[in-house]
């Protein structure tokens, strides 16, 4: 049985899913009113945290399972659906006196990595379908032979082989 190797798109998706999961215990907002304290992604958004965990797990599965066109498209969609709510929370915090912190940006970077991994895998599938040879991919199909080099230029004088003599 042949073992499947993970391509760069799958590895990028796995890294993105790990970033999303790692962002949840990080600080997403700093509260600067009467009682200053930090709010984590896990503690502030109940529905969003569940969605981000589900999207990260589904993205991991789509990267680890055999790749098909549907899995690659779904991976791009998962990244988009995970990134849009996070982007919304960066642009519009849920309350006054809340300032975005590193956790939000790590989650957004994870979502963008999932999208990029899906797009990279999709490009590799297209290249494989059309028989294009990409670096690191190996020849997918036999490419047509290269055209012959242009004919040598004819000279008026004949070329004579000469013998090289060493001088001492």
Distance between the termini: 67 Å
Structure class? mainly alpha
* Mean pLDDT over the residues: 80
What is the number of E strands? 3
Overall structural domain count: 1
Strand coverage percent: 5-15%
Shape: elongated
Order of helices and strands: HEEHHHEH
Calculate Rg over CA atoms.
Answer: 27 Å
Q: Uncertain segments of ≥5 residues (pLDDT<50)?
A: none
Strand ordering within the main sheet:
2-1-3
Largest sheet report? 3 strands, antiparallel
Q: Work out the helix count.
A: 5
The oligomeric state of the chains shown is: single chain
Summarize the structure.
The chain is mainly α and 168 residues long. It has helices spanning 8-23, 41-44, 46-64, 69-91, 102-130, and strands spanning 27-31, 37-40, 98-100.
How would you characterize this protein structure?
The protein is mainly alpha-helical and 168 residues long. It has one domain (8-130). The chain has 5 helices and 3 strands, in the order αββαααβα. It has helices at residues 8-23, 41-44, 46-64, 69-91, 102-130; strands at residues 27-31, 37-40, 98-100. Strands 2-1-3 form a 3-stranded antiparallel beta sheet. A hairpin with a 5-residue loop joins strand 1 and strand 2 (37-40). Helix 1 runs antiparallel to helix 5 (102-130). It is elongated. The termini are far apart. The model has no long low-confidence stretch (mean pLDDT 80).
């Amino acid at each position: 049985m042949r073992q499947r190797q993970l391509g760069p798109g799958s590895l990028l998706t796995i890294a993105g899913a790990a970033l999303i999961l790692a962002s949840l215990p990080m600080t997403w907002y700093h509260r600067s009113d009467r009682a200053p304290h930090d709010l984590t992604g896990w503690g502030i958004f109940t529905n969003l945290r569940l969605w981000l965990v589900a999207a990260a797990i589904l993205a991991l599965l789509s990267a680890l399972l055999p790749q098909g066109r549907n899995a690659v498209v779904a991976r791009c969609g998962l990244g988009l659906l995970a990134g849009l709510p996070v982007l919304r929370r960066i642009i519009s915090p849920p309350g006054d006196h809340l300032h975005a912190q590193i956790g939000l940006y790590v989650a957004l970077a994870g979502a963008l990595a999932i999208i990029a991994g899906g797009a990279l895998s999709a490009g590799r599938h297209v290249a494989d379908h059309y028989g294009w040879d990409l670096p690191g991919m190996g020849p997918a199909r036999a490419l047509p032979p290269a055209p012959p080099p242009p004919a040598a230029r004819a000279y008026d004088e004949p070329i004579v082989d000469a013998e090289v003599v060493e001088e001492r």
